[in-house]
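Hey, sorry to bother you again with one of my protein questions. I've been puzzling over a protein and I'd love to understand its fold better. Take your time with it, there's no hurry, and the full record follows here:
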Amino acid sequence: MASPLWVAAAVAWEAGKPLVIEEVEVAPPQKMEVRLKILFTSLCHTDMYFWDPKGQNPLFPRILGHEGGGIVESVGEGVTELAPGDHVLPVFTGECKECAHCKSEDSNMCELLCVNSDRGGMIHDGKSRFSSNGKPIYHFLGTSTFSEYTVVHVGCAAKINPRAPLDKVCVLSCGISTGFGATVNVAKPERGSTVAVFGLGAVGLAAAEGARVSGASRIIGVDMNPNKFQLAKQFGVTECVNPKDHNKPVQEVLAEMTNGGVDRSIECTGHIDAMISAFECVHDGWGVAVLVGVPPNDAVFKTNPLNFLNERTLKGSCFGNYKPRSDIPGVVEKYMNKELELDKFITHQVPFSEINKAFDYMLKGECIRCIIRMEH
């Protein structure tokens, strides 16, 4: 039986306040859990969202982080698929392999382990595996990778090729897989087609990369920050549109540019107006729009039903429709085989002791992904 560990973790004590590197106790893994030694992690906008005072979740103190890469240190009762020494990516949504969703080829929305931002403990007993001075510290998205060691459910740990560089493939734990998969698995653009991508952050750039790999002839980036346009060209974007430059709805602008509408669109902002525009800009008869961004809880999607009757399709996507344990090892292999570029997404790197710099880079819009090197 594994023993408790005392390790360094970046604790968010309060919303919006700098993280504090603290010594915390990490309990042994319980039934169907694994304890991981995190070697690299990345900062995602979702971490920022739940850290921000305007976020929708009040759970503090908390250990954030959900884009990480590490090695299994110990396993709990019932774990047979993983062993100490295995290289894994912890993922915010899981795959139990037993529920109806996991058995369906069409879904990755595991009934047991589907993403839940309100959960601050482990599924097995509802308790946290982190504590400081005897008081619990909440988990985040079942991963909490801003810690030298963390405990996750075995269904949220994707075993990968041990030769894969964890400082690169850790970004596949969330944003890059989410955008890339939304394009290749859900939108499925045909070679030579026209694709619009709304939002040119990391997820949107990954969606554009998916369109590029799929052979799209035109990839139109839509964003209200023109500073992103030059960088977007590196990800296959062929032309850019700033809605603020036009006195008509951007969906009308796109329809005029593309002889009636784009073949596919992927929305990666979470803004309801962008979602509506992304749907209304696709071509009647065959156009498909995919929603990826997460809107506010009270958002309402409004469009004329004729847009559906005219044979446009609207789809949603979570984590790129990838099943974490079944599919992510194959996405890692795409990187290893040079079929998927990851290095260009990684613009900054900082040591764990300077993790707050990563927040600064993202707040200023200076980085796509900042890798945080743990300092064991």
